[in-house]
Description:
The complex is a heterodimer of chains A (about 525) and B (about 35).
Chain A: H1 2-17, H2 24-29, H3 33-61, H4 72-107, H5 115-123, H6 125-134, H7 153-156, H8 159-188, H9 201-232, H10 246-280, H11 287-300, H12 316-328, H13 330-344, H14 353-376, H15 378-384, H16 388-418, H17 424-450, H18 465-495, H19 510-513
Helix pairs in contact in A: 3-4, 3-5, 3-18, 4-6, 4-8, 4-10, 4-16, 5-8, 6-8, 8-9, 9-10, 9-11, 10-13, 10-14, 10-16, 11-13, 14-16, 14-17, 16-17, 17-18
Chain B: H1 2-30
Amino acid sequence: MSQAHAHDHGHAEAHDHHGPPSGFTRWMYTTNHKDIGTMYLWFSFTMFLMGGTMALLIRAELFQPGLQFLDPQFFNSLTTVHGLVMVFGAIMPAFVGFANWLIPMQVGAADMAFPRMNNWSFWLLIPAALLLVGSFFVPGGAAASGWTLYPPLIIQQGLSVDMTIFAVHILGASSIMGSINIITTILNMRAPGMTLMRMPLFVWTWLITAYLLIAVMPVLAGAVTMLLTDRHFGTSFFNAAGGGDPTMFLHIFWFFGHPEVYIMILPAFGIVSQIIPAFARKPLFGYASMVYATASIAILSFIVWGHHMFTVGMPAAGNLFFMYATILIAVPTGVKIFNWISTMWRGSMTFETPMLFAVGFICLFTIGGFSGLVLALAPVDITLHNTYYVVAHFHYVLVSGALFAIMGGIYFWLPKWTGHMYNEGMGKLHFWASMVGFNVAFFPQHFLGLAGMPRRIPDYALQFHEWNAVSTVGAFIFGFSQLIFLYNIIACIRSGQKAEQKPWEGADSLEWTHLPTPVPYHTFETAPVIK
Amino acid sequence: MVDKQRRGAIITGVVLAGMALAIYLTVILQFMR
Lengths: 531, 33
């Protein structure tokens, strides 16, 4: 017995001290949450560059009126795949990457609850991405219906639609498995003393997001399964000629689609709620109200889907219900904005790159929120529906909202992850180039939308020319400034200055206070006790 | 302690996976007629 004990102990010690295996097998077979987090983040960045290239092709075509160099069908494929790649390939995996890296460290767990499933969740993304991007190369080109995949148009296209549907299924399965892992880790693996109301806000936002994902990804999967059977197995879910209803797809899709918007923004709220207290050197103002506001936003997200389809002919009472429910979301969102501002109020603030992105987030996300309120008004939306105003609105929410938070989070945790500091000057240059480029690209799109320019068109009337030209210039500034980001990350990993355990004075979650920099391959094998 | 934690994790995981499957099937079966 004692021998067996001694053997176990020796084995455990050897296990404690070994580093990661080397080469390709390290990444292929890894069950380590940090490795998987890293892979998610690099995957997301790769997809971001791909989706960004598509965006630049779109903007290049729209620089002038008239058809420049893209075939209209290809243009529609670009808008469709740009949307799908950015939503499912760039933003969502980036947040799952953060979740993998941070949640076990922030709750004091050794790893995620189901490490092998974690590995599978990641590797499923690769075939899905290949199917999605590969659909450009099959006869007929990639799906051209817009990322919403509305029938009847989507029923009519070729093989690429089946590839897209299959990709969406795989991505959904990956997200659901990731969410199961996240919820289980948070609920079952917290260190002693780490009560729910002591968890960092990033963990809270992800707990709520993961529930949203489990609730709505199966709804999307159901919708695209029905599309598939309509296309190939003679069903008529969405085919009016067979007794079905295309409008029903809109209802099902947006029942998924609106919570999806919050899936992409709640973890961003979590990241910003970590960054701002660290650089204001004050605890987060109104922690409990932040948690309740996040939960309220998540619950309300299930009863507002109709605001995406005010023009479809719902009864007036339905339009009014969705209008009022949508406006109600401004209340918990406002609570969060005011809490961030109150956290900064009279703080000893400094403006390193993560803080710049966080403050940029608050300013620009608020603009996106306000344009959302404008669109929530049913009578106003009837004129703005399907115009560039909508495009401007959701890019303010998803680029200067979700993406800016991701970039701020990368700069914030990069020293902890890599053990090196990034180049602060280059980080600031990246922020300002992104800030200017983004606003020049997307603010004029409000004017274009108000003037009536429809979205998803490769050509437009002459009066829209000036702001489209400005928008394209901004898009290229924004796009190319991301190369600074890439260079800064690579330079940081390879040759950045050594980082201290806690380079940010005000940071107070477990990864800063209890773990060295860079974090060892295995952490918290003995759970810390939180007092 | 670890066994208890593992049991809790497995139960949570199975319940969540069941929820996802139930929602998926409900959406499709709801609209079959």
